[in-house]
């Protein structure tokens, strides 16, 4: 399926619980995002940030209220089309026991080797990749065991960028990384933000500063919204 050209994302009075007999973990969540907007989600652990992302990516269905892309209810958009449209960088990064190149392209036919290298450069992953034995042919172990957490993050950024998705979602990891990798990650996030419509779960102040709307969640509710100067 063709990706949707994202013009507008709208959450309206969204409620969600993971099972019938458990409490709502999202309550009355409403916000609108237009093409080119950069939204940051912040809030304490368990406040519902990743859940918002998982609903938008159709990882879970069965919400109450309305979630629309370009005015179309998400339940009416096939999951395959959602996957073409939205690229999600999860908190837990999945790595295949395969080359760096494969882990960026994911074997997608439309993505050439030079697309992979361009995406890696764009997110500052090329520096460490070129130092690996074999470079892009270096074989990553299951779970990315032979990469640092920061390196795995940079590869997941390149994976998201290479896909040319209309909407990038970043569930930022909190894991400690060395200071050089941290600099690359910050620059990569700034680059990603410059390019796309982005939703980021933000832990770094630099990510929050790069966004133009911030939603603060607490216990499943949006308790504050505004830009970096207002909050
Ligand atoms: P963190 O900052 O720790 O990543 P978060 O804001 O992303 O937190 P969510 O993962 O959205 O929080 O979780 C919101 C609530 O939903 C929490 O109470 C959590 O325990 C619950 N929850 C999350 N995933 C599931 C699941 N798969 N099944 C049941 N409950 C879940
Ligand atoms: Mg989370």
TrEMBL record:
Q: Which UniProt keywords apply?
A: ATP-binding, Cell membrane, Membrane, Nucleotide-binding, Transmembrane, Transmembrane helix, Transport
The chain positions of domain ABC transporter read 9-231
Q: Does the keyword Transcription apply?
A: no
GO MF assignments = ABC-type oligopeptide transporter activity; ATP binding; ATP hydrolysis activity
Q: Which residues of the full protein are shown?
A: 342 to 572 of 595
What this protein is called in its record is ABC transporter permease
What GO cellular component entries does it have? plasma membrane
Where it mainly occurs, coarsely classed, is: membrane
The reply to whether Protein biosynthesis figures as a keyword in the UniProt entry is no
Highest taxon above the source species: Bacteria
Compartment list = Cell membrane
